[in-house]
Amino acid sequence: MDDMIEEFLQSQNNLVPISGHHVAIKLLGKSKGNCQDFINEVASIGIIHHANVAKLIGFCVEGSKQAL
Questions:
Q1: DSSP assigned state of 68
Q2: Are 68 and 26 in contact (CB under 8 A)?
């Protein structure tokens, strides 16, 4: 699953380290399907540009735990 997510982010030119900024973290529940749900969530949040929505700067996957 990690490889698919990294491939997606590389295709979007979105693998840039960011430091020194305040962040919000969204923890996702356990997925019942395959990793496609998580990739869709990353894609949806990644393309939203709105003053009231934080910019997606990264993700973390550890076993069944997923965070944006």
A1: -
A2: yes
Backbone torsions φ then ψ of 62, nearest 5 degrees = -135, 105
- Phi, psi of 57, rounded to the nearest 5 degrees: -115, -5
Q: Residue 50, SS3?
A: coil
Q: Does pTM surpass 0.85?
A: no
* Beta strand ranges found along 1-68 (DSSP E): 27-28, 60-62, 65-67
DSSP 55: P
**What digits encode the pLDDT tens for the residues 4-30?**
766 776 776 655 655 666 677 788 776
